[in-house]
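---------- Forwarded message ----------

FYI, see the tRNA synthetase class I (I, L, M and V) family protein record below. Original note from H. follows.
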Amino acid sequence: MSLFYRPWPFGKKGKAPYVGVITHGFVLDERGLKMSKSLGNVVDPSIVIGGGKNQGEAPSYGADVLRLWVSSVDYTGDVMIGPQVLRQMSDIYRKLRGTLRFLLANLHDWEACSCFLITIAIGFTPPLR
């Protein structure tokens, strides 16, 4: 038995206390290189959301574009992110948002009111005591 063997993850029953394990890949730049501070190819989420000092070089995409990228990549393998990928996600987001706004605007008897959302939010909010 190794000195560094740790039996505690398996508990007293001799089996793992979890059903499955999810693994993920690396975040790569557009050229397929691993993100690294020393290479200077790191994408800062705050710059993606708010934009950089030079808006032409690092425009503001907003949090929704970053959320769309995160939800659309296959995290079980390596994922790529960079200016070109973010531009593509921005285009997809704009088309998706425009389509959904068009569909909602053409619903019969639909009014843009927040009372429906408030009702849902109240249903999931625990009562105050």
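H. also flagged this: Helices lie at 45-50, 63-72, 83-105, 115-124.
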